[in-house]
Amino acid sequence: MRIALAQINNTVGDLSANAAKILDYARQGASRGAQVVAFPELALTGYPPRDLVEKHSFLDRTEEALNNIAAESAGIDATLIVGYVGRAPENSAIRSQNAAAVIENGKIVFRQCKMLLPNYDVFDEARYFQAAASQSISIIRGTRVALVICEDAWNDKQYWERLRYSRDPIEEQVNQGAELIISINASPWNIGKRQQRKDIFQAVTQRFGLPVVYVQMVGGNDQLVFDGSSFAMTSAGVVAAEARAFEEDLILFDTSTGKGDNHSYDLRPEEAAYEALVLGTRDYIRKCGFRSVLVGLSGGIDSALVATIAVDAVGKENVTGVGMPGPYSSGHSITDARDLARRLGIRFEIVPIKAGYEAMLATLDPLFTGYNPDTTEENLQSRLRGMVLMALSNKFGSLVLTTGNKSEIAVGYCTLYGDMCGGLSVISDVPKTMVYRLARIANSRYERRGLAAPIPESTLTKPPSAELRPGQKDTDSLPEYDVLDAILEGYIERYQSVPEIAAEKGIPETLVRDIVRKVDRNEYKRQQAAPGLRITRKAFGVGRRFPIAHRFTE
């Protein structure tokens, strides 16, 4: 059987556009000789639809769109497998199900519903979907197929030390006589995820001796990035077909010959992270209806990386950099920002804040008499910059990209309604030490194309500073970033205790405790931050949910 893996980038809730794309890729697959064209999980509705599934109108229109796909596919000589949100059986406690439809000759001939509903990290499926009580194999083009939806395949007893679920949908369908496994997926990407998927499915092929087809979504939806990287494996666990990463693609796999298309290319983990940030930024901007973006350029490494990602995402003609020198800005702040803008080819504007800052100090002076200057005056500068960017955003309809990194946001080294102002926090899941490595990757990408590196060497080598008081450096308030990031990785991504981090990293326990206290104390800031793109195992946002008002301490 010749199977096309249709790796598409859809938009949550855009049923007509998603349906049109499904039909287009179905025709492409059939024209290349595919007998089956398989699409990702929730290909019709987008993933995750979240509370849209609570709307009766959403469920009605989804079913209508699915029936339209079936009717319009009557002339396509291929069987379609389409993921969608379906209605749960009557009297179910939850009204919808995560489902897949098999479409042949203009009709829906089989429906399969997801059995294992993830409810950890970024997932909330047990809230939204009714789990299938049982599953059956589907006969597709004479082959008995185990059709599973994402998490249904992630419970292999030979891969995991501890199983999350008591059921194994693949095992149950293999016991019904399945000859082929087709898994449709919307699996959010993070560093290391691609290899983990292959390891899991190699365990599946070794256990059951059956070929596997893994169809994965691509694109950015809010904070989640989906990498594509669809693949097919032979019964021996050999990858026989593989799609591109972070792009739409269509590849074919022939189960009889065990051969298929290979469009993949090698990406080191942090090269993949850069690609993910570009894709996530592009899709967030476009899917939210914006065309252009604004980036506050300080001459520092964070804003330089964000501006470079923005240019790669939406083009230099759609990016404007804004320099906002204040009373303590260094000379290289503007010269480095201007140099970056010149190298990127973006528009660059300068809006000084010194006069506004002095006016605010004069306005507040009667109330501040007798008090020494402190972070209040520092934050005034940051908030004036935020006000400038938001004013430009309102006037010109451009989305503001914030430039805070994960290390700063973790410990609250950021200003509410100041540098945190904006619509998307591009690098909020990028630790500071990784920011430098991604900047080098960005420069090398340009150099490989014969272009000048966009990020100046002076930006890469100067000590980081918020420049909100004379001679300020980040290390005045924080440890060196390699130490800070080691602590944060243990506490945020692995939930280690203070003694565990101190012992493992060889860092004084008093320092670890101080950083952990800062992380806990600044939850209120993070919950007011712009959404950020997830690239690590544990990002701030939908996958990390701590109370703001609590008294548990480490």
Question: What is the helix tally?
Answer: 17
Largest β sheet strand count, sense and barrel closure: 7 strands, mixed
Strand order of the largest sheet: 5-4-3-2-1-14-15
Q: What is the CATH fold-level name of the largest domain?
A: Nitrilase/N-carbamoyl-D-aminoacid amidohydrolase
Task: Quote the distance from N terminus to C terminus.
Answer: 57 Å
Q: Note the overall shape.
A: elongated
Compute the number of strand runs: 20
Mean pLDDT across all residues, rounded? 94
- How would you classify the helix and strand content by structural class? alpha/beta
**The named CATH superfamily of the largest domain:** Carbon-nitrogen hydrolase
Task: Report the top-level CATH class of the largest domain.
Answer: Alpha Beta
CATH architecture of the largest domain: 4-Layer Sandwich
Radius of gyration: 26 Å
Q: Report low-confidence residues grouped into runs of 5 or more.
A: none
Q: Could you say how many structural domains there are in total?
A: 2
Task: Give a topology summary.
Layout: E1 2-7, H1 15-31, E2 36-38, H2 56-72, E3 79-87, E4 96-104, E5 107-113, H3 125-128, E6 138-140, E7 143-149, H4 169-174, E8 180-185, H5 193-208, E9 212-216, E10 218-221, E11 224-227, E12 231-233, E13 239-242, E14 249-254, E15 259-260, H6 269-287, E16 293-296, H7 301-314, E17 319-323, H8 331-344, E18 347-350, H9 354-368, H10 375-396, E19 399-402, H11 406-411, E20 424-425, H12 432-448, H13 457-461, H14 481-493, H15 498-505, H16 509-521, H17 523-526
Parallel strand pairs: 1-2, 2-3, 7-8, 8-9, 16-17, 16-19, 17-18, 19-20
Antiparallel strand pairs: 1-14, 3-4, 4-5, 6-7, 9-12, 10-11, 12-13, 14-15
Helix pairs in contact: 1-2, 6-7, 6-12, 7-8, 7-12, 9-10, 14-15, 15-16
